[in-house]
Amino acid sequence: AVARHLAAGEATRRGLSAGAASGPLSVREEEKLRDALFASMRDSLELGEDELRAHYEKTRVRYVTPQVSLRRQAFASESDARAEDRRLGVDGRIAAEGSDRIGPTPVDGLPTSVMPEALTLAAAGQRVVLMRDGRWWLVELEENHAAEPLPFEAVRTRVEQSLRMLRAQAEFRAEIVRLRSEARIEIEGSARANTTPAPDASKPVPGPDR
Questions:
Q1: Which of 85, 64, 190 is nearest to 137 (CA)?
Q2: What is the pTM of this model?
Q3: Contacts from 102-105 at CB under 8 Å and sequence distance 24+?
Q4: How far, in Å, CA of 5 to CA of 28, rounded?
Q5: Which of 66, 134, 140, 174 lies 20 to 30 Å from 163, alpha-carbon distance?
Q6: How crowded is residue 117: how many other Cβ atoms within 10 Å of its Cβ?
Q7: CA nearest 74: which of 93, 100, 56?
């Protein structure tokens, strides 16, 4: 609660509040201001390319994903596509000539031209017939690749978001520590200023007149 209150005050000081409050802030208002302060600190960070690449190397296991290669061939009709599927059978494969290859690519990055039907293909050699843009296609799972980290260029945005969040969290915690320290000093200073000095024990205490 103290950290939230301090963060809300700092957000207001930085001009991040939506408007001047007419009275004490509610918990929800303080939470919004705290979040605004954090977002401001996060978005203002400047991250170099070397920092991003170093963070990627440390966390590349996060970007490991299954990859596949597909092969597809166009046909004039559904019956033609299904006839070729039957002709190839279990052991046949779509020929490279007259077809095109898709991949290797992450499963979640497959083009819409083969989705979602391609997700039904589990083993190399399995095929599915589908229609796109008025054409019929025979799509085959050519290969399941070993799961490997995606290249830095493919996940750069995710790497930057991760590092930006980590840096912002560290800076936010440090800012709260600073605000706590300043508030403590201010409170202690105010307390000293308002304290009545104790009597000097070396001086006699006045007694009643005799």
A1: 85
A2: 0.63
A3: 102/69, 102/70, 102/71, 102/72, 103/67, 103/68, 103/69, 103/70, 103/142, 103/143, 103/145, 104/67, 104/68, 104/69, 104/143, 104/145, 105/67, 105/68, 105/69
A4: 11
A5: 66
A6: 15
A7: 100
